[in-house]
Amino acid sequence: MDSPRAGGRYFISEAAIVRLSQTDERSKARLTTWLVNQRRLGVEYPEIFKKTITMAEQQKDLSKHDRADRLLQYIGDQIGEIGKHFDFFPYDIPNTEIAAWSESVGAHEVWYLLDYLDEKGWVKNNKDNFFTYRHIVTVKGYDRLEELETANTKSSKGSVTILPTEPEKKVLNPESKMRKVFIIHGRDDGTKETVARFIERLGLKPIILHEEPSQGRTIIEKFEQHAEVAFAIALLTPDDTGGLAGEEQSHKPRARQNVIFEFGYFIGRLGRHRVCALKKENVETPSDYDGVLYIPFDESGAWKMELVNELKNAGFDVDANLAI
Questions:
Q1: 180-323 is classed CATH 3.40.50.450
Q2: Suppose 123 and one of 110, 117, 205, 252 were both cysteines; which one would form an S-S bond, judging by CB atoms 3.0 to 4.6 Å apart?
């Protein structure tokens, strides 16, 4: 998804969308702070899960001073060069990045912070005309920006370490762009291992359910927790046979029932553009899943490039050269 109010692009799970609809505006503002922080760490495509929203609800609001500092940094970034100015329309405030950067829920809060910056002598606020307001960072303002930059450089945490959710732990290193990919598999361990190692080679994290700790949970509970992923790959391998009752001679090779169930689950959860199937030769495909991409799992390895293309189309930053 892409939203200026959220500070840019992000991924949000279906479960998190439902959870977000039940969240108050102040918690949503804290969530936008987390999104901005993730991008400042170098994460191009932050991931929001239910736990992320829960942590936002439990997090304390930023102080007035911290919010003003962040607004000053945003204005400084928009201006770019010393001596230039930043213009904006006040009626657009609730729908722009200004609200995200300042953890604001309305225009009145942004105006208060702008007045605060003006009183500090860091910004000069001028009304250019009836519709536009112009803001200029002063010499004292640039001194303050330099102080903030120095403080963030010296600190390993800086001002971007709130909401310590599991997705954030993956991306504390600005160079890391890990994404979770659920691998739906049957009894063909060789194919499963081949695909899992290729996913790792791309810098992604394969999720194989039986390799994850159960921690006393039922299978479905364990599945639901680890289904919080950004992409799913179904391995359609000939582990079973099936067909009409009484016509056993015409039965065809099929994937296991759990594979078909999980395949459909992720289509409903993530959408078809975030699910694909690697299909071995002669395996029967489910008739109800027409329109889903089936990639032939060939011995030559051509499937790797096709899979990379699907991942890139789904928003993953992966190197196509690794598929060669």
A1: yes
A2: 117
Torsion of CA 156, 159, 165, 167, to 10 degrees: -70
Give this prediction's pTM. 0.46
CA–CA distance, 260 with 283 (Å, rounded to integer): 12
Nearest to 120 by CA among 145, 88, 85: 145
Token pair of 194 as six digits:
């081949």
Identify the DSSP state of 320: G
Q: What is the DSSP letter of 48?
A: E
- The answer to whether the beta carbons of residues 74 and 98 sit under 8 Å apart is yes
Return averaged pLDDT per consecutive 10 residues of the chain, 324 residues in all. 73 85 89 86 84 87 90 82 64 68 83 87 72 75 84 50 37 43 93 94 90 82 85 90 73 86 88 88 75 83 91 82 76
DSSP for 255-313 reads: --HHHHHHHHHHHHHH-GGGEEEEE-TTPPPPGGGTTS-EEE--TT-HHHHHHHHHHHH
Domain 64-154 - what CATH class?
Answer: mainly alpha
What 8-state DSSP symbol labels residue 60?
P
H-helix or E-strand spanning residue 240? strand 240-242
Where along the chain do its domains lie? Answer: 2-59+162-170, 64-154, 180-323
